[in-house]
Amino acid sequence: MANDHVKRIEAQIREYRSLIGKVAAPGPHEELIKIIHRQGWTTIAEGALVTAMLDSMIGTARVLEQMTAALVRGAGDVKAK
Question: Domain limits of the chain?
Answer without folding.
Answer: 42-81
